[in-house]
Design brief:
The protein is α+β, with helices and mostly antiparallel strands. Helices cover 26% and strands 33% of the residues.
Length: 384
């Protein structure tokens, strides 16, 4: 009997001690992890202020490769949400929702999952280094345990799975950012728009990477297109376009194009319709036609309508595109195109740069504008 009483007393003492220790444990949990990257702050902010790239940099897949993620709400900023369902116990089901964001500075996300506690949040803070060359990405995890003593004991393991998920995600994000063009588009206005397909005449050409050589090749191509339009009874229906094929180390391969006034025309007594090509000339290896080149009115190997010796007709691109406007020397156009690619990467847009997905720009200023006062619209086709 005495032994039973001793056991009961011991259990009561352990129980009381457990309660006392639980009361003394903190009612709030907080941990921080960080990684240092060399990416521009705007790239990092845009990558984290949307969940379109989250499935690629989240560490959750490391615990559950079969995790299923779905996005909802706006594409970026407050209200953007990612939800997941998983079979692994360490992951389970859950969601993240952006609660607030401060451009290039801070993003706060609400967490709803099976981890111990309530009012769970991530706070991502972006801290540029004093030398301006690197950036510290700091993610803090905060959680309330209140007077739930079980939760307070659970908080002892905050440096377990929560810390591993944060550090793993930061490492994955660092690797993802390293693959983006390292260019800062912060001061460039880039918008996503819907583009309607347009009939156009084009000439595929190339030139050395100098402004004078590119201008000479462009002028020659424009002259050929204008002559072909006159034969076909068509007029220009938009500004001249430069469709980029390849920006090489020494040569620039591109197509010069002019939108035309109709999708049908008569050539040598035959009526023809301008249609969407199978691919672009550069994708077939037929930048220059062979001696057995097709005749006017035929289709070349890319599916484009042959109008004249070097002139082709095509119904060009319809879909989403990034667009930016620029005023100045055309020497800056390659940088603008690179900025658009970086923007597409951080926002989770796909682009191909082949076929009808090739980027292009439009010369919107008058032909007599000075070289450093020309105006352009620069486009990059994207897929959501």
């Amino acid at each position: 009997m005495i032994r039973i009483v001793e056991v009961v007393v011991a259990l009561l003492i352990v129980f009381v001690l457990a309660i006392v220790v639980g009361v003394l444990l903190p009612d709030h949990g907080h941990i921080e992890r960080f990684v240092e990257v060399s990416s521009p702050v705007r790239q990092v902010y845009d990558s984290m202020n949307t969940f379109r790239r989250y499935p690629q940099w989240s560490a959750l897949r490391g615990f559950d490769p079969n995790l299923n993620m779905t996005l909802s709400g706006p594409q970026a900023g407050p209200g953007a949400k990612v939800s997941w369902t998983g079979s692994a116990q360490r992951v389970g089901d859950g969601s993240l929702e952006i609660k607030s964001s401060e451009p290039d500075s801070k993003i706060i996300m609400d967490i709803d999952n099976a981890w111990t506690g309530t009012n769970k949040t991530y706070t991502a803070t972006l801290l540029p280094a004093a030398n301006g060359k690197t950036l510290k990405i700091n993610i803090a995890y905060d959680v309330d345990y209140g007077w739930n003593l079980w939760w307070r004991y659970g908080g002892l393991y905050i440096n377990g799975t929560p810390a591993a998920v944060i550090q793993g995600s930061l490492n994955n994000l660092s690797a993802l950012l390293a693959g983006f063009p390292n260019t800062d588009y912060k001061d460039q206005q880039i918008d996503s728009i819907d583009v309607q397909a347009r009939p156009l005449f084009l000439v595929n050409t190339k030139a050395k990477r100098t402004l004078d050589d590119v201008e000479d090749a462009t002028n020659t191509a424009v002259g050929e297109i204008q002559a072909a339009m006159k034969k076909a009874g068509l007029t220009a229906a938009g500004p001249p376009m430069t469709i980029t094929t390849s920006w090489g180390e020494e040569e620039y391969a591109f197509a010069v194009a002019i939108p035309v006034s109709a999708a049908t025309f008569t050539l040598a007594g035959q009526e023809h319709s301008i249609e969407t090509p199978v691919t672009a000339p550069s994708d077939t290896g037929d930048d220059e036609e062979s001696p057995a080149a097709p005749n006017p009115g035929d289709k070349d190997k890319s599916g484009m309508l042959v109008v004249d010796a070097n002139v082709r007709a095509a119904l060009w691109y319809q879909g989403k595109a990034l667009v930016t406007e620029y005023s100045g020397s055309p020497a800056a156009l390659p940088l603008l195109r690179l900025n658009q690619k970086a923007y597409a990467e951080t926002h989770g847009y796909r682009y191909s740069e082949t076929g009808l997905g090739r980027p292009w720009d439009e010369l919107t200023s008058t032909p007599d504008a000075a070289a450093d006062q020309q105006t352009f619209k620069v486009y990059l086709p994207i897929r959501l």
